[in-house]
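Practice record 12: protein with heme C.
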Amino acid sequence: MISLRMLLVVIGLGLCSVAQAAGVDNHARNMAASCSACHGTDGYSEGGMPVIAGMDKKLFVTTMKDFKSGARPATVMHQHAKGYSDEQIEMLAKFFAAQKRK
Ligand code: HEC
């Protein structure tokens, strides 16, 4: 059975190619949308999850790579981090770092 996550990724990729064709880079935003279920829209979490909006770019990259390798303990982030390439993590880092903290 195709998982919802896979479906979202497929839709995301579709949207990305449309955005690229239009000359707009929405790739990072589309990837970030999959984090919003827990971390809130654009990383402004309100439900006790860590706020990742405005997170330092370097810290974000290190944290995600540590989740990916398992070096940093986590409940769910190991699974999420493993789904992204280093290049995609850089894009996400840039996106979230650009969101101002409220
Ligand atoms: C299912 C809920 C969920 C989703 C979806 C999710 N996260 Fe997380 N995130 C967490 C939890 C819970 C933690 C705390 C560590 C742990 O227990 O895994 C966390 C921690 C983090 C941290 C560390 C924050 C800090 O201040 O230490 C970062 C960075 C992060 N997530 C990024 C992301 C990114 C980027 C995505 C999307 C690709 C994402 N998360 C998707 C639940 C989620």
